[in-house]
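User: I'm putting together notes for a lab meeting next week and I want to include a structural view of one of the chains we've been expressing. I don't have a solved structure, so I'd like a prediction I can at least talk through. The sequence is below, exactly as it appears in our construct file.
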Amino acid sequence: MRLPFDPTRLCAAALAAAAAGVSLAQGALPEPQQARTERSYQGSYSASVSRELFTACDADSDDRLDVFEAAQSFEAVRTPRDCEDFAKLDRDRDGYVTWPEFDQLFREGLQNGGTFRVATARPFVMPVAPPAPPTPLRQFLRTHDADGDGSLSPQEIEQLLQRTGLPDVMAGPLKALDVDRNGKVDEPELAPWFEMLPPMAKQAAGGVGALPPPWFEADKNRDSRIDAAEFEPVLRRIDPLLARWAKALLARIDRDKDGKLAANELQPPPAEAPPKPAAPKPVPPPAR
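Assistant: Thanks for the context. Below is the predicted structure for the 288-residue chain, given as structure tokens.
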């Protein structure tokens, strides 16, 4: 059966176009590709891992792999002039390997316990699963644990009462929860007292402006604000490509322009109520 295209001519055209684009822009032949790192991945399929690997292979960050990048990334494409093997990867015959095509190769490589191998041009950060949402007790503890040691010191207990408006007389009972006499109240010691609080008191004790998941876990310095350094890793877990837009997204969401995101800025905007239908106009009685 005659194919509706010639993969050799298609690849040669893509090769010539890529070389011409570099020579026109730089006035010289393409420079040698930078050194790459061999990567192997084995396990269950993950779209975020697939995306991250693809981005790490995309040396010029144009969201596609040309014949040069494919030859550097895949063992199956021996050289940039290996047009027939490149055409097997470029399934839509547009002269590039896009992420859907890369993702299909990734899925196929992992079938039946297989290993997917690729050579990356840029640093590769393996995406991690988002942490489980904290329990109310743990969120309470981390909100008021200023030094991050997993417990409340007497000074932190006093600051807790001042911050939340709870009665000062609660300071004594809270400090008395230190059963092991190590000078601090840790999570197991705090749990019985916290469970006895009524719902409204728990909400007040949670701290004004406490961040919702997943932002609470991203707030490493526990200031109830998300700065640029804390914002980017959360975006990367959602989709590695979002990380490059972290600065622009933060500036757009940051309504008070203080360079950080507070709880009210991270909440989705309330849904607008649909407009009420106009009241029907009264129909005048027919003239007699």
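A couple of points you could mention at the meeting. The chain is about 45% helix and 5% strand. The beta strands are 37-41, 116-120, 151-152, 185-186.

User: Perfect, that's what I needed.
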